[in-house]
Amino acid sequence: MAAPKKSNSGALSWDQVDTVMLDMDGTLLDLHFDNHFWQEHLPVRLAQLRGVDEAEIRPWLIARTNAVRGQLSWYCLDYWARELEVDILALKQEVIHLISVHEHVEPFLDAVRRSGRHVMLVTNAHRHSLDLKLACTEIGCHFHQVVTAHDLGCAKEEPGFWDRLREQTPFNPASSLFVDDNLAVLRAARDYGIAHLRAVRRPDSRRPEMDTGEFPAIGDFRELGFPSEG
Hints:
alpha/beta, Rossmann fold, HAD-SF_hydro_IA, globular, phosphoglycolate phosphatase activity, 39% helix, single chain, 6-stranded parallel β-sheet
């Protein structure tokens, strides 16, 4: 079967949407913080703490993270604290100044909330990381619900996630919008039947735009258009 043709437009028919589900890292927040932490800061600090060369730590750390990529463990700070024998949250706080909200996110969230639609933050982030970022950005007030995959026991890209979410919070997939920067997650959402999907072209503001595959994508949230106030 031929792959679905991708639309280049992120524009949305808001009259077809009653539930809005949004990812956090890379979608609402700049992924630069996470990329810098895992790829730059953590290897340096691990090397310092263990008294070894950074060049020795990097390939070892990449292999360890790749082994659980896409699983709930990949996103779990408790898992990495045990595996690496280091306080991951404390190390994250050393670069907390890099946490930032993507441009035009907050006006979009304001408009969606005022429109009367149900707005949910749906993230794979571990609860400790989620709490840290919500405290830094203060975007939590825009959501009716904040859901982390750790509360449901499986990552968004894993089988079963969307059924568990729907059991906890009933929603109609046919009238739901979901925005995420992870293509594996978007494909799982599509397979579940979520009708309105958008990828993010530049999750990390310091890196080039990414290929969003078969999904229509946005450069920023203005491209979705803001819904009228309900």
